[in-house]
Amino acid sequence: MRSELCGTSRIQRTGSTRFLPRKFSSLRQVPAYGRFIHERFERCLDLYLCPRQRKMRVNVDPEDLIPKLPKPKDLQPFPTTQALVYRGHSGLVRSISVSPSGQWLASGTLRCSSCPPRWRTKPVVSTSERFLSASVDAEPAEGVEPVTWSECEGEELDQGIHLRISHPKDVHQVTWHTKGDYLASVMPDNSSHLQVFIHQLSRRRSQNPFRKNKGLVQCVSFHPVRPYFFVATQRSIRIYNLIKQEMTKKLQANSKWISSMAIHPGGDHVVCGSYDCRLSWFDLDLSTKPYKMLRHHKKAVRGVAYHRLYPLFASGSDDGSVIVCHGTVYNDLLQNPLIVPVKVLRGHVITHDLGVLDVKFHPTQPWVFSSGADATIRLFS
């Protein structure tokens, strides 16, 4: 022990730092470190003054994060200007249809008129309460055909009307199959299962393909190639296989109320518009949820349409505009569709908070027809 003390005193005289171990009977008798504050101060100086590794920040341009889209002038042809205005209707032009040749255009209007009521009461003949138990819009009884076929005669035949298909309620939509032998009609009624009928002209036969309709049916459409039938309700689109008679897929639109629907000519893509200003593009091979949601309209979307030959689709809204988009669909399933808005077409006058009610493309030319609440039909080319 003495030798260690002598050696330690010698080391202290030379200036070297060495500590002599000491023994304590308990831990609480160990004194505090005398150079604690000085050591902490030197540590702070080392952290403050000593050089460190410098990391370079990566400067990312925000424009590089935006996907590169082609310019609209490189995606021509598409309609750009208003060419013609068809006048003659006195009310809302609800729907339009272009003939396969493109030379004829059919339109449907809605006329609203009122007349002052005049009553001439006569003495009461009899009284009864049996009419109170019957429903005004009651469905046909069992054994009675809800749809009747009849051939037209006389003046109707002279006007070109050959056949009449009578429905139990008001028909809101009619769509044709590509082969021309089948057509479907829609009568929206949430309290009835007689909302959709499929008619066959060659056999003059009608059938109701659904026993129960889950929701209010808005519109229907046939698949252009396969035996599929699309039924759009308020919030979803159901796809049925007509041969197997079963539902194959259910598309969730993520919108409050679907207004219109269109099927791509290839049959693998669906676009639908809604009253909450949304336009949804579905890729049937990808998912049951929208591949892309477009919100470029400010008001309700009333009509959507695909072009049969060109990669174009259009939508009409109550804001009075028709927006034309370029939608390229690739044969490679690994490559997603390219959707680019190319032109906003204006011309319709907003009437009673309604704008464009329907849009249709020309079958062979890059033209689009639109009908509106201002009682006009406009052609953009």
Describe it for me?
- This protein has helices at 2-14, 36-49, 62-65, 155-158; strands spanning 82-86, 92-98, 105-110, 148-151, 163-166, 173-176, 182-186, 196-200, 205-207, 219-222, 228-232, 236-241, 246-252, 258-263, 269-274, 279-283, 292-294, 301-306, 312-317, 321-328, 338-346, 356-361, 368-372, 377-380.
- With 381 residues, it is mainly beta.
- It has a four-stranded antiparallel beta sheet with strand order 1-24-23-22, with no helix packed on it. It has a four-stranded antiparallel beta sheet with strand order 6-7-8-9, with no helix packed on it.
- The longest helix has 14 residues, at 36-49.
- The termini are far apart.
- It is 9% helix and 34% strand.
- The chain is built from four helices and 24 strands.
- It is elongated, with a radius of gyration of 38 Å.
- Strand 11 (228-232) and strand 12 form a beta hairpin.
- The model is unreliable at 113-122 and 129-138 (pLDDT under 50).
- It has one domain: Methylamine Dehydrogenase, Chain H.
- It is found in: Nucleus, Nucleolus.
- Keywords: Nucleus, Repeat, Ribosome biogenesis, rRNA processing, WD repeat.
- GO terms for molecular function: ribonucleoprotein complex binding.
- This is BOP1 N-terminal domain-containing protein.
- Pfam families: BOP1NT (PF08145), WD40 (PF00400).
